[in-house]
């Protein structure tokens, strides 16, 4: 499927729209996940169960917020939503740092869970904002590529949280864990300014002509559809709902693997592997996302579910292998490095799946008026999955011998995601005549 041909001026302006928007999104990820490596530096203030509680609270708030913030973003535009996200998250990260800096650590888990919930409310504007903006700048034949970029941005944010934050802490702010929150707060303040100056919702807002993105969605109508009607149509759309349940499984698998490796490595003689996590996640997630987007556009005529199905098949095989490693490999240090490789493989497949579904399929089926709502519903399900794994694995890994059930716990979700992806393997949005 051939997409439109762009002028050099348009291509340049589009780059300066999505590139800084992407950097802002990566900074938001840093402000979303730095609390995980921080957990290892706050001593007895937070254990595995506390980490699971904090994760679950944030995930629930994040997921529920989409019911409001998705339609709100469709109404006010992606640029304003990204400004709200960066400003709000910057302030809350500053407050989380101040809890540590001032020694106000009585009931630490409760305080951080509340603040993290507020942080995730503001964070929920970000993913809907970035897809909302870019849905107006990318033709359907290019959205696999954008889905790849979306995954690269997620990987970059994980790199910032899991590698850059600990490096900054060890090199500059050793013994001052509050800077796990102060640093992303400062970066978000910078990106707030950049977003205000550079990001625009549509090509027309920059003096370029708007263009048909190639879909024929019920939400592409020039007639303005009321917000509640958009929400009702999205939540009853069978394909969007199926993708949402696939992404619920993605949420369990992504955070169920990545979030717990640091805690596992700390107690199983793998501190070096723990330090390499951010770099590994960036390489794996970025390559997985770009490959998924390319395969979708190149070989499946811009259909997204077949790629998700292929990646889910990989996940099932990897999880079975991981379960066998946990049971049969006796050497703790060697096992930790094998598990590191497993987590990286899972990141490759899971972030690739998430990028092509949340980053591309949502724009395909949401149309111009429903994109943010579709992203919100689907990402809301992702974080239902995050909450499920946060509570479950937080409790499970706190039990004697609980780590043996880490990967077996994830296998049913991988099988469900594979089955649902196969079920909708042939679906794609209707195309406009001539596309």
What does this structure look like?
With 435 residues, the protein is mostly helical. It has a single domain, classed as Growth Hormone, Chain: A. Helix content is 77%, strand content 0%. It is built from 14 helices and no strands. The chain is globular and about 60 Å long. The N and C termini lie close together (7 Å).
> Approximately what portion of the residues adopt beta-strand conformation?
under 5%
Oligomer: single chain
Helix content: over 70%
Q: What distance separates the N and C termini?
A: 7 Å
Spatial shape: globular
Radius of gyration: 21 Å
What would CATH call the class? Mainly Alpha
> What is the strand tally?
0
Mean pLDDT: 86
Poorly predicted regions: none
Overall SS class? mainly alpha
> What is the CATH architecture term?
Up-down Bundle
What can be said about the biggest beta sheet? none
The CATH topology comes to Growth Hormone, Chain: A
What's this entry about, in short?
By secondary structure, this protein is mainly α. It has helices at residues 8-33, 35-39, 48-76, 78-101, 108-135, 143-171, 179-198, 227-235, 238-267, 271-275, 277-299, 305-328, 332-396, 406-423. The longest helix is centred in the last third of the chain and has 65 residues, at 332-396.
């Amino acid at each position: 499927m051939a997409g439109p041909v762009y002028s050099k001026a348009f291509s340049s302006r589009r780059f300066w729209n999505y590139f800084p928007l992407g950097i802002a999104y990566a900074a938001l990820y840093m402000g979303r996940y730095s609390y995980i490596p921080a957990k290892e530096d706050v001593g007895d203030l937070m254990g595995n169960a506390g980490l699971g509680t904090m994760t679950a609270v944030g995930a629930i708030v994040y997921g529920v917020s989409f019911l409001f913030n998705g339609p709100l973003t469709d109404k006010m535009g992606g640029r304003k939503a990204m400004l709200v996200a960066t400003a709000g998250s910057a302030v809350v990260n500053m407050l989380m740092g101040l809890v540590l800096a001032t020694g106000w650590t009585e009931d630490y888990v409760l305080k951080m869970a509340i603040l993290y919930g507020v942080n995730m409310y503001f964070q929920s504007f970000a993913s809907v904002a970035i897809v909302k903006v870019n849905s107006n700048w990318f033709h359907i034949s290019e959205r696999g590529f954008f889905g790849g970029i979306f995954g690269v941005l997620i990987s970059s944010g994980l790199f910032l949280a899991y590698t850059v934050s600990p490096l900054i802490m060890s090199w500059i702010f050793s013994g001052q864990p509050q800077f796990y929150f102060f640093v992303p707060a400062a970066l978000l303040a910078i990106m707030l300014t950049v977003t205000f100056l550079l990001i625009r919702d549509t090509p027309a807002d920059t003096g370029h002509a708007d263009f048909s993105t190639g879909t024929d969605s019920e939400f592409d109508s020039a007639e303005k559809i009321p917000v509640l009607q958009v929400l009702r149509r999205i939540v009853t759309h069978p394909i969007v709902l199926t993708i949402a349940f696939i992404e619920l499984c993605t949420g369990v698998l992504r955070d169920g693997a990545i979030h717990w490796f640091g805690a596992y490595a700390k107690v199983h003689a793998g501190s070096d592997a723990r330090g390499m996590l951010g770099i590994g996640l960036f390489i794996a997630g970025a390559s997985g996302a770009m490959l998924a987007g390319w395969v979708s556009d190149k070989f499946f005529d811009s259909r997204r579910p077949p790629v998700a199905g292929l990646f889910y098949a990989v996940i099932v095989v990897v999880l079975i292998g991981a379960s066998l490693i946990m049971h049969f490999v006796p050497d703790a240090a060697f096992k930790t490095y094998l598990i590191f490789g497993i987590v990286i493989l899972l990141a490759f497949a899971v972030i690739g799946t998430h990028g092509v579904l949340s980053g591309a399929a949502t724009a395909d089926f949401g149309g111009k008026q429903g994109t943010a709502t579709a992203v919100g519903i689907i990402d809301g399900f992702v974080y239902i999955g995050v909450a499920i794994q946060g509570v479950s694995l937080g409790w499970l890994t706190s039990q004697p011998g609980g780590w043996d059930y880490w990967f077996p716990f994830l296998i049913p979700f991988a099988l469900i995601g594979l089955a649902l992806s196969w079920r909708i393997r042939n679906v794609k949005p209707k195309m406009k005549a001539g596309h």
